[in-house]
């Protein structure tokens, strides 16, 4: 291969690379909304420069089309220069700017006509040489005038504006200095050298990079302190660059084989494929693979702790109506560290077990009502042990974790790690992280960071719980004060009615009227006394004596109350005798059934069933209403004064649970948003109530 072919190949790659870089920078600058005027003009200038470089690579830097594209490129640069004067506010105060720019535009517009004259086949050698000299002189005038304007732009700027103009002015000055040298050599040597023309694309590609930086950063001072994100992207671009070089080599070889049409086709293909690869090849999957690879082999520490802590603070500190609950943000904060796609949060229940508190982007996993038993909770509460579930599946059992992890969690292959949230000596929750796309072995650095972040997140959850407890205590005080006034008034009214009843026995003359009045007054007094007794139970549950109650008859009696208002169906009714207080039991069932009726549509029935469930009698109340989220069930359903109904006082579910607990029973709930809710009322059966009482008393003596 001779020297001309070598420089032709270099020029091809130089201009093609410049076209790709300019187009990519234009796409980067033009992305986003509400971009500034300078960014728009920078984008236009880069697009025109990319078109010039592409035509120069496809045809020749000396072709008529390349010279016309160069004229358009220079006009784009002049437009950008004028926009910098406009942003600086000096386009109106410095009068010569507009005339000078106007003259430079006219000189540049003359270049296509001169190029057409030189390319005309009928022109003689002398005419072509003369036109060439005129064209070069005009180009020198344009470059000198543009350099003077750039100097005026930067030198006349204030100290505040100079940092903003630094990179853009430096890039424009470099571009026109290159053109000045290029055309000076062409004028002195009476021709353009192929070497300078070949290297021109590389210089232009290097000069437009600070031009894009100045447009994006607004001229602020640039410090080259590459972060891990920059390192990852640089490596991505490096891999793509190797791919582009291979593509250019193959395309160039094919161009030598074919003709001009084949060359133009190859250039268009290489440009399109390279631009698409540069913009879209670094997909999310590739970036994750690169990140894992670099962290394994390049960096001493896997994490950029400043970035991780800022992201943690941003995730947890989100507020507003669109922000997810704190429990979901806690899961997301831990999942972002390990790049886990989803996660679960378990929180302690009243009986010491763990129940589902929140799920983040993991709707497919089925979590039982009791996610983790009490003995497993004690294992995680004794230390800050982070459990790698893959190790447990492989048979590891260094600290007894194999017995603590529930089987349903091990059976799900997507479950990857368990991170405890420890606040001082108290376990506030457990986070289960899903398996990331690129799985790696957890090491000491992962454990240290997850442990520290877990402690910080536990403090956030403890702070929220403290605020909720304080708010609840304040509202309880207000409620108690109101109830005290109500009870005082009711006592007075009951006393007055009792006195009226006694006086009426002596003074009413007509026997029939006296009998009716006595019945009415006595019923009123009985109702008021019953209300007074029920209000008194708020402070002392379990004061009434338990008796044998037919659970199936009690449920049927309560269901009959709603026969005229809503469709209540008793789908299963087994004979079941339990130890309870009938009035309190009916009151609890009324609260639960009323909640189910309120949550259901008018034509949707509520289903009731009564059965014997081992040691307990079981009542199930099922509706197909809107359902409740795990966060609502855990933190708000059984909280007094929290109601989703307009005007509701929010003590129905709370009172139902307290009444059932006072009778030795349990109230449980399962709910799914959009599907409905199922309440479980369990009360001790009469046959085994004495055995349950003896078991509880023996446990208390041992404690």
TrEMBL record:
It comes from the Bacteria. Residues 485-687 form the Histidine kinase domain. InterPro entries: GAF-like_dom_sf (IPR029016), HATPase_C_sf (IPR036890), HATPase_dom (IPR003594), His_kinase_dom (IPR005467), Sig_transdc_His_kin-like_C (IPR004358), XrtA/PrsK (IPR014265). Coiled coil: none annotated. It holds the Pfam family HATPase_c. One of its GO terms (biological process) is phosphorelay signal transduction system. SUPFAM superfamilies: ATPase domain of HSP90 chaperone/DNA topoisomerase II/histidine kinase (SSF55874), GAF domain-like (SSF55781). SMART domains: HATPase_c. One of its GO terms (molecular function) is protein histidine kinase activity. It catalyses: ATP + protein L-histidine = ADP + protein N-phospho-L-histidine. Its EC number is 2.7.13.3. Keywords: ATP-binding, Kinase, Membrane, Nucleotide-binding, Phosphoprotein, Transferase, Transmembrane, Transmembrane helix, Two-component regulatory system. The chain crosses the membrane at residues 6-29, 41-59, 65-85, 97-118, 130-155, 167-185, 197-216, 237-258, 264-281. It is an enzyme of class 2 (transferase). This is histidine kinase. It comes from Caenibius tardaugens NBRC 16725.
